[in-house]
Write a structure and sequence with these properties.
Oligomer: single chain
Distance between the termini: 17 Å
Order of helices and strands: HHHHHHHHHEEHHHHHH
Number of strands: 2
Strand content: under 5%
Strand order of the largest sheet: 1-2
């Protein structure tokens, strides 16, 4: 697929469906007529630069405006929504999780806390997304209306700050990157939300984790599993792990693809996480005596705690190894021929 093919495609996808064939044929014929016989990619790029941004060109093919937000601002509008909505939703969910766990720990059962979080989380996501969508749309509607008024009155139109369009913008590196190397926005968002969950649980472990016994009113928390004072003595290591995890998630969000540096950083982070778990759970003083006695009563053996701790550490280590292997596999995944071709063309210009 040539640059002209891509350029025409970017233009026609922004015009009404019934007009796409005619506009595509007309634009392609115009571009080919302006190019010399046996043209090279250099001439192709120079011509496309003169024609400019496909979004702006598409707006000129409309006989009259029939849109809330026109093509000149639509790409910026969509890009802003894709950035703001996930960021705001993630932050709102993290705050909701932290405040709910801290305020409800010891006051309500785990089941009621989880159920409340699930319901409140769905409501918060919908409410946040709708509000962000409304306000961003309103801002761009005002920009579009002012711009249209200025053009009608012969005044200077509104021009959003931009780096300037070039043919390289037609095919972005993210679009041509092998799918398994691309990091979806949902991955760092989920990681941040999960980090908020386990950090909140860490600081309230003596009120949430332990033995629950049935009663007339439901499940009652009777015996805490952890000695909270001993557990919190490891807070510097836990804080370091949290900070490194947040850095990793921000890096994923910004970079959006795996490479060797990110995979190596992930190796160090997962290694530290496993070591922190080992230091925590191999310290016998971290568990309360009441919890150990209850386990012996329930399972009939003093080895029950060892099996639980061993199973937990094995699971954490297994997931860490899988995550590290996947990171390096994605980092060293071969690039598709389309990306190599695009990069060669980019370098020769």
């Amino acid at each position: 697929m040539t640059l002209i093919d891509r350029y025409v495609g970017e233009v026609v996808r922004r015009v009404p469906a019934k007009e796409r064939d005619d506009i595509g044929k007309e634009l392609r014929a115009t571009l080919e007529d302006l190019l010399p016989l046996g043209y090279a990619e250099k001439e192709e790029r120079e011509l496309l630069v003169k024609f400019g941004d496909p979004a702006v060109l598409a707006s000129k093919y409309r006989s009259q405006p029939r849109y809330l937000i026109g093509p000149a601002f639509f790409d910026a509008y969509v890009t802003l929504l894709k950035i703001i909505i996930p960021v705001v939703v993630t932050v709102v969910l993290m705050v909701l999780i932290i405040t709910t766990i801290f305020s409800s720990a010891g006051e309500a059962s785990v089941a009621s806390v989880v159920g409340g979080l699930f319901a409140d989380g769905i409501a918060a996501v919908v409410d946040t997304a709708v509000n962000v969508f409304f306000w961003v749309t309103l801002v761009f509607f005002i920009i579009e209306w002012v711009d249209r008024t200025n053009r009608t009155a012969g005044k200077t139109p509104i021009v959003l700050p931009e780096k300037g369009w070039t043919p390289d913008d037609i095919a972005s590196e993210q679009e041509l990157m092998p799918k398994n190397r691309v990091i979806p926005r949902s991955e760092p968002a989920f990681d941040l939300i999960w980090t908020a969950v386990w950090v909140s649980v860490y600081f309230n472990a003596d009120k949430l984790i332990g033995i629950y016994e049935g009663s007339a009113s439901g499940l009652d928390f009777t015996t805490p599993a952890f000695n909270q004072t001993m557990l919190l003595s490891y807070w510097p290591l836990v804080l370091l792990t949290v900070i490194l995890q947040i850095i990793m998630d921000v890096w994923k969000w910004a970079r959006r693809r795996w490479d060797f540096r990110m995979a190596t950083y992930n190796l160090a982070l997962q290694t530290l996480t496993v070591l922190v778990f080992i230091l925590l759970f191999t310290n016998a003083e971290i568990f309360t005596e009441g919890f150990i006695l209850q386990l012996e009563r329930i399972f009939g053996s003093a080895d029950a705690l060892n099996w639980i701790v061993g199973g937990l550490l094995f699971t954490v280590a297994l997931f860490a190894v899988i995550d590290v292997i996947q990171g390096f596999r994605k980092a060293f995944m071969k690039e598709g021929s389309s990306l190599k071709k695009w990069r060669m063309g980019k370098g020769s210009s």
